[in-house]
């Protein structure tokens, strides 16, 4: 349809006050709240870290130095590569992938149960039980995990009491607390997209597969999972992006020797006060994560439009 | 050719909490026959089908397939295949993958699956269409793919849950013939569920008529139509004029019943022999096509009903006249269209005659009490 005709129809269907509101609100959301700040960040990332006096002066030109620094470290560094930052970056991504897969493994059965197996009453109760813990704010939740997983915490006390271990396990140093906390934080974002997808699956499809002799795992593999793929992708994307970009949980739950890439970004901004380099690191995180997601979607043959279903 | 397995239901009850969906069903389906369960929605016919396929366990009683007790055997391990009302084809698989799914489950290789799918596609007259996606097929084609998918599991009994209800009339009639042809060709036992009595009569060797969880009669189509066992069967299978009343005389398998439209003589249904005595409440059923406009002379034994014509319907082969008899009794008659110009008879008073052998007398069950 031609844009002009489409616009006219859109206005006719909604009436001009509503149409105007929708257009304004959406453009404000997209341009002012998303595109502009990101552009400012990109602009920042392409500049030198100059004192305020020199900003806007002849030295204030565009440069790729900040990106170069991420890869190769300070100029003339004998190591050749910026091993510290690269390693943290890689570890963050791998850990985020791990958190995503872990969430998928625990949320798919929950979502399936909610959507297909549970009675309406049970499903409603379970949904409420899933949502209520999120009324507790993120920081508080993270500290609670610290207490549970601490050397003198609930789990270690329990393990010591039943005699499974004779020394408390340092879950915090081993990052177990961090992964558990992150996984827990995004459970809902995984459950609901998958639930949405599976909910629209015709129950007869499952019964038909069963009637034709399929065991339960094949029913999931061939019927339910292919159908739920857009929901699974949507959930995985959100969890991965948010886990890779999490800051509070790694700050509170991370082991003393481990860093999350977002912590490096944070420190660059607020401790080194090097905004251009911080911006460059943030852009790198965003771009690499996005590319990774697109790559995985391509591998699993999911189109972007399907994710929004 | 293998004739499939027989199916037996012995004193089967199915109960959901306090609701009894199937009440003491006793059915014997012979190997290789086309058997239908017919009844209005909510009568328990789908519950019976799900009990045979194994998705439900009977609360009491025994289901036997091929002589073997099916208790504790899940739907994936029964020699049955179910065709769902909405077909439940897998939308994300190609047609051939759908058809060969049962083979895939058994671990067959791609080549074998493709070969078998193609064979079945030939059987359902869709050769070479295996690579299409399900949504690219028409309604009738989907229907046939669903049958092929079920046949691929090599069941002994094929269970069909109103599979034609989503099709338009023409296609439905065509698929009836086709289903019957496929059944003869593969020689399996077909158990068919429907609320459409035309479908049941046209295709089945035997039909079980159900009402509120109870099987009212099991018989072939002609018997159901001509010699119903209950007032429900008489009024549900085909169209019927019903005249409630009281028996005044009974002899030689015939009864005279005093009704609002006069004293009517009728043959006592086989199932009701010995159950009608003078003074009993009874119902006389006369099919619309058994009523004809009365001639000038009264034939011996002929029944007569008079009424005023209130409406007329013409559908090509016949005229249907709707009359109002004494006491407001509705009467319908179907007259053959002889093709000669015929003026409307609305408002006229007509006398209709019928052969008492073609009228059926039954004890008035709940049907009379409702009226």
From TrEMBL, chain A:
<dbReference type="InterPro" id="IPR000515">
    <property type="entry name" value="MetI-like"/>
</dbReference>
<protein>
    <submittedName>
        <fullName>ABC transporter permease</fullName>
    </submittedName>
</protein>
<feature type="transmembrane region" description="Helical">
    <location>
        <begin position="88"/>
        <end position="111"/>
    </location>
</feature>
<dbReference type="InterPro" id="IPR035906">
    <property type="entry name" value="MetI-like_sf"/>
</dbReference>
<keyword id="KW-0812">Transmembrane</keyword>
<comment type="similarity">
    <text>Belongs to the binding-protein-dependent transport system permease family. CysTW subfamily.</text>
</comment>
<feature type="transmembrane region" description="Helical">
    <location>
        <begin position="176"/>
        <end position="195"/>
    </location>
</feature>
<keyword id="KW-1133">Transmembrane helix</keyword>
<feature type="transmembrane region" description="Helical">
    <location>
        <begin position="279"/>
        <end position="300"/>
    </location>
</feature>
<feature type="domain" description="ABC transmembrane type-1">
    <location>
        <begin position="89"/>
        <end position="296"/>
    </location>
</feature>
<feature type="transmembrane region" description="Helical">
    <location>
        <begin position="18"/>
        <end position="40"/>
    </location>
</feature>
<keyword id="KW-0472">Membrane</keyword>
<keyword id="KW-1003">Cell membrane</keyword>
<feature type="transmembrane region" description="Helical">
    <location>
        <begin position="142"/>
        <end position="164"/>
    </location>
</feature>
<keyword id="KW-0813">Transport</keyword>
<dbReference type="Pfam" id="PF00528">
    <property type="entry name" value="BPD_transp_1"/>
</dbReference>
From TrEMBL, chain B:
<keyword id="KW-0813">Transport</keyword>
<dbReference type="Pfam" id="PF00005">
    <property type="entry name" value="ABC_tran"/>
</dbReference>
<dbReference type="Pfam" id="PF08402">
    <property type="entry name" value="TOBE_2"/>
</dbReference>
<dbReference type="InterPro" id="IPR008995">
    <property type="entry name" value="Mo/tungstate-bd_C_term_dom"/>
</dbReference>
<protein>
    <submittedName>
        <fullName>ABC transporter ATP-binding protein</fullName>
    </submittedName>
</protein>
<dbReference type="GO" id="GO:0005524">
    <property type="term" value="F:ATP binding"/>
</dbReference>
<dbReference type="InterPro" id="IPR027417">
    <property type="entry name" value="P-loop_NTPase"/>
</dbReference>
<keyword id="KW-0067">ATP-binding</keyword>
<dbReference type="InterPro" id="IPR003439">
    <property type="entry name" value="ABC_transporter-like_ATP-bd"/>
</dbReference>
<dbReference type="InterPro" id="IPR013611">
    <property type="entry name" value="Transp-assoc_OB_typ2"/>
</dbReference>
<dbReference type="InterPro" id="IPR050093">
    <property type="entry name" value="ABC_SmlMolc_Importer"/>
</dbReference>
<keyword id="KW-0547">Nucleotide-binding</keyword>
<dbReference type="InterPro" id="IPR003593">
    <property type="entry name" value="AAA+_ATPase"/>
</dbReference>
<dbReference type="InterPro" id="IPR017871">
    <property type="entry name" value="ABC_transporter-like_CS"/>
</dbReference>
<feature type="domain" description="ABC transporter">
    <location>
        <begin position="7"/>
        <end position="237"/>
    </location>
</feature>
């Amino acid at each position: 349809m031609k844009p002009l005709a489409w616009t006219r129809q859109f206005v006719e269907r909604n009436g001009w006050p509503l149409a105007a509101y929708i257009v304004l609100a959406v453009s404000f959301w997209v341009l002012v709240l998303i595109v502009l700040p990101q552009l400012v960040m990109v602009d920042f990332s392409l500049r030198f870290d100059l004192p305020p006096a020199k900003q806007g002066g002849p030295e204030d030109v565009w440069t790729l130095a900040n990106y170069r620094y991420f890869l190769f470290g300070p100029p003339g560094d004998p190591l050749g590569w910026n091993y510290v930052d690269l390693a943290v970056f890689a570890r963050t991504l791998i850990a985020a992938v791990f958190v995503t897969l872990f969430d998928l493994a625990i949320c798919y059965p929950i979502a399936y149960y909610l959507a297909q197996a549970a009675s309406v009453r049970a499903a409603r109760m379970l949904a409420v039980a899933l949502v209520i813990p999120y009324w507790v704010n993120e920081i508080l939740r993270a500290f609670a995990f610290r207490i549970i997983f601490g050397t003198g915490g609930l789990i270690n006390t329990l393990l010591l009491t039943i005699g499974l271990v004779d020394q408390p396990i340092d879950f915090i140093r081993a990052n177990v607390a961090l992964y558990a906390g992150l996984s827990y934080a995004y459970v809902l974002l995984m459950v609901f997209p998958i639930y949405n997808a599976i909910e629209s699956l015709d129950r007869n499809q499952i019964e038909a597969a069963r009637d034709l002799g399929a065991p339960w795992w094949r029913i999931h593999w061939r019927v339910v999972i292919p159908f739920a793929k857009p929901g699974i992708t949507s959930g995985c994307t959100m969890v991965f992006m948010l886990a890779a970009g999490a800051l509070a949980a790694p700050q509170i739950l991370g082991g003393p020797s481990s860093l999350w890439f977002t912590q490096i970004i944070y420190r660059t901004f607020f401790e080194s006060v090097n905004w251009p380099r911080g911006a460059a690191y943030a852009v790198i995180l965003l771009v690499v994560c996005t590319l990774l997601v697109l790559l995985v979607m391509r591998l699993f043959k999911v189109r972007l439009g399907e994710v929004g279903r | 050719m293998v004739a499939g397995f027989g199916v037996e239901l012995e004193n089967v009850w199915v109960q959901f909490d306090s609701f009894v969906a199937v009440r003491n069903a006793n059915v014997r389906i012979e190997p290789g026959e086309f058997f239908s369960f017919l009844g209005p929605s909510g009568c328990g016919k789908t519950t019976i089908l799900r009990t045979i396929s194994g998705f439900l366990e009977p609360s009491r009683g025994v289901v036997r397939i091929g002589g073997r007790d099916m208790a504790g055997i899940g739907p994936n391990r029964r020699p049955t295949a179910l065709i769902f009302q909405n077909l439940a084809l897998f939308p994300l698989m190609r047609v051939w993958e759908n058809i060969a799914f049962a083979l895939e489950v058994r671990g067959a290789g791609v080549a074998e699956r493709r070969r078998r799918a193609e064979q079945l596609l030939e059987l359902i007259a869709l050769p070479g269409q295996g690579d299409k996606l399900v949504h690219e097929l028409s309604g009738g084609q989907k229907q046939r793919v669903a049958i092929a998918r079920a046949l691929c599991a090599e069941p002994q009994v094929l269970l069909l849950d109103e599979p034609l209800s989503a099709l338009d009339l023409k296609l439905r009639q065509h698929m009836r013939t086709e289903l019957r042809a496929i059944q003869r060709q593969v020689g399996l036992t077909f158990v068919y569920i429907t609320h459409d009595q035309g479908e049941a009569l046209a295709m089945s060797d035997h039909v079980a008529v159900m009402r509120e969880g109870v099987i009212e009669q099991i018989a072939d189509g002609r018997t159901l139509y001509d010699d119903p066992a209950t007032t429900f069967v008489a009024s549900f299978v085909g169209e019927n004029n019903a005249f409630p009343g009281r028996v005044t005389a009974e002899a030689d398998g015939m009864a005279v019943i005093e009704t609002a439209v006069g004293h009517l003589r009728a043959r006592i249904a086989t199932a009701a022999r010995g159950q009608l005595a003078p003074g009993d409440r009874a119902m006389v059923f006369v099919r619309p096509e058994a009523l004809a406009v009365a001639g000038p002379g009264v034939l011996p034994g002929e029944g007569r009903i008079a009424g005023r014509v209130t409406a007329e319907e013409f559908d090509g082969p016949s005229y249907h006249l709707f009359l109002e008899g004494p006491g407001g009794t509705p009467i319908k008659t179907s007259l053959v269209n002889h093709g000669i110009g015929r003026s409307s008879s609305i408002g006229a008073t007509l006398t209709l005659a019928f052969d008492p052998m073609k009228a059926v007398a039954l004890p008035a069950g709940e049907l009379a009490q409702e009226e």
